[in-house]
Amino acid sequence: MRAERWASPLLMALLFAPAGSATAAPPNVVLILADDLGFSDTAPYGSEIPTPHISRFAAEGMQFSNYHTAASCAPTRAMLLTGVDSHRNGVPNIPESIPRYQSEQPDYAGTLSHDVVTIAALLADAGYHTYMTGKWHLGMAPDLLPSQRGFERTVAMADTGADNWEMKTYLPIYDRAHWFADGRELDALPDDFYSSKFYIDKTIEFIESNRADHRPFFSYIPFQAVHIPVQAPQEYTDRYMGVYDSGWTRLREQRLVRAKALGIVPPTTQLAPVETNGNWDALSDEEKRYASKRMAVYAGMVAAMDHHIGRLIDHLEKIGEYENTVFVFASDNGSEGSDPTFGPGGGLFRFWLGRNGYSTDYETLGTRGSFVNIGPSFASAAAAPLAYYKFFAREGGMRVPLIIAGPTVAAKGVITNALAYVTDIAPTILEIAGVSPANGEYAGRRVEVISGRSLNGLLAGSAESVHPADEPIGYELGGNAALFKGDYKVVMDRGPVGDDEWHLFDIVSDPGESNDLRDADPKRFSAMLADYQRYAEDNNVLPVRDGYDQRTQLMLNYVADRILPVSFFGLAGFVLLSAWVWRVVHSRRRKREALVAS
Predict the structure, then answer these.
(1) N or C: which end of the chain has fewer CB atoms below 10 A?
(2) Which residue is catalytic, options 73, 87, 129, 178?
């Protein structure tokens, strides 16, 4: 069955390709996913960080300036690999943050449902070699690992994140970092391990292992860069020391200027205020010095990722496969603004860091054993000129870079402002490979139908958009919600940072979401709210309760799952032990009393 499905597209390509065509065989596909990379964190999108290899993709392909994902990692990954909405693929939120009143309901497990089929499975059936090296976060039960979801060879880190220098976790919710290779849990990593290097090392190893049979490959590379803990080799951090000494407000303004000059955003774009941004000028010199270096480590991590992408490019050129490889580069969501070292629980978290070999000392930031995050203010600069960042449904959380390059892209060096959504990637890759989607049935069982649209009309230069202006695209994650329709978006973010109110923006002319059109265009506003309600009903979107916060819920689930059971059994053990001691003591006392009486 698998060989037959592979032979068909390959044979058709060989029979009907033009004479001398460089793309006679189905192309290889490399899907590169950065983690928590902000909209303007790479040079093609206005960054001060040189990223020559990502810039090469932009020059040799199409750059998307209006591409949206979920505002958190696992829902994006599930949609990316299946083309199915997160409320239908089992991953409406990261499993660590789903409250109990939701997790018991259908499609709220937080792990990839078996009612969806991955593009890896479809490509493997069509004869592609399929490889995955990087962060998975879609389930770590044996039947949920990537080795059981269509990937032939895998090295996967299954958690929300992990250390980039060694095999250890970065949050107390895990007892250890969960790494798997071809379905088996790893107990060690290489001595020279650094996550970005390791993932490319394994990708090259997998490609080489099957190169002799000349079959095309699909390689999925979800980096850990630049997820917390932000870490980078010292030589990369050193390049950016002093670059961020002017602070986040200045950086945000600079990136806006560059994004306008590049044509990523229109000249009329304005920066909307972000309430979580601090006052740089109010910091002490020592606080500025520390914050600036944290951002230098972040920039170094971006640069290191780009360097290792370049190593893969060099290898593909060396073996003659580069010209027949399509590259898809994107981020899973906006930049990360969380700072677990700060706030009410910051002291306890810093205590945990110390107990687990982490340091936040200035001198060692970014190196082995350090823990770095950039915080909300620099995160808003990383997403500039958009508003807010990861977790929020504003553009800074959902609009991220997307570049598609390779032999199937005719519109090279072009920036498109056409609306694109994460569910569009799966049908795009399948069409590039000449492979049909599952269409509701796979391996004798019913599966969800892909809801995204192929972007290949844009890539070919034959279409200006793939989503009709009257097509609504709904979204919800943790109570934050949005709906896109043509050039417009309605959006609501919950408190305490959001205002729990719906707003309307023209995100084409106003990507910074600085001009709320709710009162100026009430008819459109009402119609789009009605569209969202239909989306929520059709996709069984469950409400969250008052006070819900994704990051807080993560810790509440940890306490409920790990701390309270230990406390309960500890208390129960203490009570039983006390009862046993009392019984023994009481029994001996009675025996003594009986002896005295006799």
Answers:
(1) C
(2) 73
